[in-house]
TrEMBL record:
GO terms for cellular component: cytoplasm. Pfam families: Radical_SAM, Radical_SAM_C. It comes from Senegalia massiliensis. Keywords: 4Fe-4S, Iron, Iron-sulfur, Metal-binding, S-adenosyl-L-methionine. GO terms for biological process: tRNA wobble base 5-methoxycarbonylmethyl-2-thiouridinylation. GO terms for molecular function: 4 iron, 4 sulfur cluster binding; catalytic activity; metal ion binding. This is Radical SAM protein. Its cofactor is [4Fe-4S] cluster. InterPro entries: ELP3, Elp3/MiaA/NifB-like_rSAM, Radical_SAM_C, rSAM, rSAM_horseshoe, rSAM_sf. Residues 1-234 form the Radical SAM core domain.
Amino acid sequence: MKNHYIIPIFIPHRGCPHDCVFCNQRKITGLDTEITSQQIIDIIEEHLNTISDSVLKEIAFFGGSFTGLDLKVQRSFLNIAKNYKEEGKIDKIRLSTRPDYIDKEIIENLKDYDVDIIELGVQSLDKEVLKSSNRGHTVDDVYRAVDIIKTNKFELGLQMMVGLVGDTYNKSLHTVKKFIELKPDFVRIYPTLIIRQTYLESLYIKKIYKPFTLEDTIDYIKDYLMLFKYFDIPVIRIGLQPTKNISFEQDVVAGPLHPSIRQIIESKVYGEIIKLMLIEKTFNTKKLIIKLNSKSLSQFVGYKGENLKKLKKKYNIKIIETNNVDKIEINDGNEKYLLDEKCFIKKYLCKHNIICS
């Protein structure tokens, strides 16, 4: 499987008809000026000069609502990307937009320019949360847009935010379950941060809005991630990429920001799996050899080694990294035990009445 490289083109706030309470794209992207066609070409060329030919390459338009741009501007930007694709220099074209900025005419234009992937900034499927966040679109807009995108055979990504105004654990869980019903190709999850010069900041200052704590956010998203994993829907990002701007020293006023938030959440997922395994499985000796894929090592060991420490309270552990196994193998000298992660995820979800109720 090829490695994946995205060439990001940020179009801060262009094409976006609403000022959502949480949004200041210029602060988030670190860009204060509108982008030009020549700048897009320069960005692409700069990236291509450093990328191996063996990786899968995408041009991705992020930041604003791409399909809300003036049609001439859309065509100008997409024509650049299409030319690179036709020349074989990139493999795919991706863009992000709003659910209410997708219709049949827009889709036909995207097909003309050979766009592959459309990400929808849904944020929530709770109508009160959408209203409180001034999203300007409805739940029905989301379903209609998804239907058009899937009917026309685009890859579909859905983005959600956790901790918006009026949000709760259960409201975000509702959004997760509805996402699963929509069967996207992938999902992104963003904890809500309070960015400077947003309406959300004024609500926070007036004590009308209180962000989720980091601890609650981690616990909530752990459950959401396990649910997506159980239904085989990839979560390709959790949290904004920490940058000079996305920090408490710069433009983040408050909220559950942590540079390793995904690693911590993945660690918690494995922690729950290990906890259930230790209840169910008794090994014949105290010495265990655990063989696992290198990609799973940090999550299995846990953030700051927390999962491994729990295992070592009961067993002497030797870990072998390899790329030759898919499932985690645990050998006690007499028996080889394959850790069925999906089975234990189901047990956890049923135990907590997230499914099976």
